[in-house]
Amino acid sequence: MSATIIDGKKTSSDIKRELADEVAQLKKVGITPKLVVVLVGEDPASEIYVKNKEKACDLVGIDSVKHLLPASTSQKELLDLVNKLNNDDSVNGILVQLPLPKQIDENAIILAIDPEKDVDGFHPINVGALMIGTATFSSCTPSGCIELLKRYNIKIEGSKAVVVGRSNIVGKPVAMMLLHENATVELCHSRTRDLAAETRQADILIAGIGKPKFITADMVKPGAAVIDVGINRTEDGLCGDVDFEAVKEVASAITPVPRGVGPMTIAMLLRNTVTAAKMHAAKGRK
C-alpha cells in the first residue's frame, strides 16, 4: 500500500486562511503586520521566492514592501538599510534574501537585524532561544516540517527521528525542534558511517542533504514518515533528496517535491510576521 501523501500546498493554504482571519481581527484594533523583504542582485531563484512571498502577504492581508538593490551594493549600504528598518516602528519583520553577493558578509547582515524583527529566525539570539526552548521565531523551513507532522497526526513524542543533513538553516534547527517535541533524535551527515543502517531505524526521517534522490527505498524503515526538504533541479525537472516513487511504497507518509515542504516555508514566515506584529503591539508599537 502506497504512503499517505503529505500535501504541503494544501496545508500551507489552510494556514494562510487561519492567518488571514487573525490579521483581519488585528486590523480591527489598528494593528497591520508589515514585512519588508530586501533582495540584492538578480538571482532568478531568489526573485521567484520574493514574488511568492509578496503574493502570500497580499492573500493574508500583511503589508509587504520590497527593496530591490543592485548586485553592486556595498555591505555598508545594506547595513544602513537594515538599521533604518530596525528603527522604523511600522516594520514588524525584516527578511534579507540569501544568498548575497560575494562582497557582502552574510553573517554581518544577519547579526545586524533586530532579533525582534528577525522573522527568518537566523539571528544567533533566536537560534540560542531555539536551543533552550524559548524561541519566539524559529527558522521557517524546519517549522514547516514540524507543522506538517502535527497536522497529519504523525506521532513525534517517543519516536526515533533521524535527520540527514546538518545545515544551520534546516538540519540543526529541525533536530532541536524534534527534541523539544520529545522525539529521540539522531543527526546524520556526510561523514556518518553506514548511513543506511541509521536511517533504517527512523520512525521519522527528514532529508535535507542537497543530493537528488539520495534516500532510496532500502534506506527507509517500513511504515516510517519521510519529510523531504531537498529541492534539486535536474534534467528531468525538480526532485527532492528522496527517491519519491520508490520510497512511497515503503513509507507510511511522505512529502512530495514540489508541493511538500516548500510552500510551508512561506506560511511559517507569515506566521512569524503576525507574531512579531502582536509582540510589537504589546510593547506599545504599532
Q: What is the averaged pLDDT score?
A: 96
Structural class: alpha/beta
Can you tell me the overall shape? globular
The number of distinct β-strands equals 11
Order of strands across the biggest sheet?
A: 1-11-8-7-5-6
Distance between the termini: 52 Å
Helix content: 40-55%
CATH superfamily of the largest domain: NAD(P)-binding Rossmann-like Domain
Number of helices: 10
Low-confidence stretches: none
Strand content: 15-25%
Just give the CATH class of the largest domain.
Answer: Alpha Beta
Quickly list its features.
42% helix; Rossmann fold; 2 domains; globular; alpha/beta; 6-stranded parallel beta sheet; 286 residues; 10 helices
Explain what this protein looks like in three dimensions.
Strand 5 (160-164), helix 7 (171-180) and strand 6 form a beta-alpha-beta unit. This protein folds into two domains: 30-114, Rossmann fold (3-Layer(aba) Sandwich); 140-262, NAD(P)-binding Rossmann-like Domain (Rossmann fold), CATH 3.40.50. It has a six-stranded parallel β-sheet. The protein starts with a strand and ends with a helix. The chain is 42% helix and 16% strand. Helix 1 (8-28) packs parallel to helix 10 (261-282) and helix 6 packs across helix 10 (261-282). The chain is globular and about 55 Å long. It has helices spanning 8-28, 44-60, 75-86, 106-112, 124-132, 140-151, 171-180, 195-199, 244-247, 261-282, and strands at residues 4-5, 34-40, 63-69, 93-96, 160-164, 184-188, 204-207, 225-228, 232-234, 237-239, 253-254. The chain is of the alpha/beta class and 286 residues long. The chain has ten helices and eleven strands.
